[in-house]
């Protein structure tokens, strides 16, 4: 137990800093770093950034597990997803219409809500399972309509896996980490097969595997500095700031 040295605040700060670093690279763009002869910096930033999403996915699951007001929790994330979307869209400037990561988490929360309904009422298990399947189909349809759901089905599934195995037996925890590792690899493989040119950047998604030992060190404690609202406000604020800086470069 002594090796579990990372509390909630520490892990959230790691995720927040990793996200900031990753978005600096993503918004400024690889070409911008190449013009400064800093290709290695771009690659390093994207590698560090792979830690952010799985950590946030873990705490989305934990938040849903512990919150007493699940409706408030859902609508809080919905509010910041709406606020963040126009900023995210213009900052990333992709050829596809992209949905921000909070929208991906909203899909996850809908699935978690339905899972809770199944646990509470077994007689409605089939109907709620159909609704879970409908969420999966919706995400696939959005992708087919050229709408980019951040991290796709992998992004929707990760908080669900964390939630299902939260506070479970050691064997189930080991199984969870194996499933998480497989999801990360499959997500990378799906993106890798679409690439035309192979480089070190083609393998960056695999560095998300480094989050597993980090989360294994989590001791479940809150930590001294929580700054609850910071982690919601920071998401749209830092994207907007980096975007404004990119316009000046």
Question: In summary, what is this structure?
Answer:
By secondary structure, the chain is mostly helical. The protein has eleven helices and two strands; from the N terminus they run H-H-H-H-H-E-H-H-E-H-H-H-H.
What can you tell me about this protein's structure?
The protein is an all-alpha fold. It has one domain. Helices cover 71% and strands 2% of the residues. It has eleven helices and two strands. It has helices at 8-28, 30-35, 39-49, 52-66, 70-92, 101-120, 125-144, 152-164, 170-192, 211-216, 230-248, and strands spanning 97-99, 147-149. It has a two-stranded parallel ribbon with strand order 1-2. Helix 5 (70-92) runs parallel beside helix 11 and helix 6 (101-120) packs across helix 8 (152-164). It is globular. The protein starts with 7 loop residues before the first helix and ends with a helix. The mean pLDDT is 92.
List keywords for this structure.
2 strands; 249 residues; single chain; mainly alpha
What number of structural domains do the residues give?
A: 1
Topology, number of strands: 2
Number of helices: 11
Structural class: mainly alpha
Order of helices and strands, N to C?
HHHHHEHHEHHHH
Give the helix proportion (percent range): over 70%
Segments where pLDDT lies below 50 for 5+ residues?
none
Strand content bin = under 5%
Major sheet attributes: 2 strands, parallel
Shape: globular
Query: What gyration radius follows from the Cα positions, in whole Å?
Result: 18 Å
